[in-house]
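FW: tagging you since you asked about this chain on Friday. Here's the raw sequence from the shared folder, copied in full. Didn't touch anything.
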Amino acid sequence: MTRRNPFFFAVPLIVLLGVALLPYIWILLASFKNRVDLITDTPKWIFEPTTVNYIDIFDKGFDRYLLNSILIGFSSTALCVLVGTLAAYGFSRFRIPAGNHLFFVILATRLGPPVAYALPMYLIFQAFGLVNSHFGVILAHATFNLVLVVWMMRSFFDEVPRAIEEAAYLDGCGHFRVFWNFALPMTYPGLVAVSIFVLIFSWNELLFALILTGGETRTLPVMIPSLVLHTGTLWGQVAAASLIQSIPVLIFIFFIQKKLVQGLTFGAVKG
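HL: got it, structure written out here
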């Protein structure tokens, strides 16, 4: 059997990794450059670093926008995963009248472009006094991402052997106890993967955050475009804000990356 040289596999991987990391390297370097070094025709790789861009964005209330993003992102993720997981278990385990049709209707809500829902959602939220509030954006993000949770978690619950739950029912366990003690722990890696996807969508979402927030409730995706002025773009501040925005999610993913991989491969290999 001919052994293949790992060099042929390593080179494309290194090239792809370099292409993927290049934007982050540019953002990192640009965040420590002054305005003169940023607007030069030839990119400067050797320069005197400065923290003025970070100081400027925090002077503009960046810390408040960061806290808003953390509050809205993690709260909407928790709400969405809680409701979506319970709904997915119901679709997977119980006979629901016209259940397949109802499930298709739920999935169909994500087929349209988000901008089509922007005006109706704004009018509804305005009628209930939820505009310019944290809870309004949390509810909007949870509603929009709920479809993803139901769809993915239902497939994960379908992979759980029903024999385990039937044995629990014979021992006198109720529906919720079977769900909490048996079905949910067995789908935990999938639950983590879904939570990460929902968090990333909420963390980077711009449209609903733009129309439903204002002043004290704005998030980072709304704040960063405000650095594009009619006199020019403040690239150093944009880079600094973008770099800090990516840090919380990267830290979160780093600590649970093992569960993420398990969740993405859950049910892919059967014995």
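FW: The longest helix spans residues 62-93.
HL: agreed, and Strands lie at 228-229, 232-233.
FW: great, closing this out.
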